[in-house]
Amino acid sequence: MAATKQTEFQKNFRLIVEKIFNHWQDLRLAVEHGMGGRNGQQVAIEIMDYTYQYCISNENITQGELQEVVEELMDQEFNTLCDDDSIPEICRNLLRYKLLAQQNQYPQIEAELSKLPAGKEWLRPDVKITYTPIEGDSSSDEDMDDNDEEDDDEMGQDDEDAPSSSGRMTRSQTRKQQAQEFVEPEDGWTTVRRK
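^ thats the sequence. predicted structure below, dont judge the formating
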């Protein structure tokens, strides 16, 4: 009987993860803007799958651990830093719903998830998302990865606010930019503000 309960939990928790990821605007924007390349939608599905597996395979994970995993996946796969507190919110909800699902509290979970705005499920192989490739982005992923550490170490005080030569900003640059007044983003960038 315990195996049946575990199977039911995994099936239901999978649906919860899918619902949350399908409503994650930052992930969808990263796919639509071509941050993951031509296979961005498939990469997003893989991130969702990995997050699901990570949650059910690890009994006592903390929000900080899960947040670190998701942030790293978004940075590695989409070259994207989410500055709108969506990742902490997603991780907090995933772990909360995991606990509620383990306690068989599905009516409460359904009631809360039904409050999410109606939207089309897009994290499925049979749904096609059109993306807009970033113009002028001729650098390869390998070039970006090779330059990241050097850029962080070699930047002086004056250069700290400027984006690195690879075209992406480090976390410290992003935090510094937040402290300044809002500046309209350059072409090819999408700004998602905090709630």
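The radius of gyration is 19 Å.
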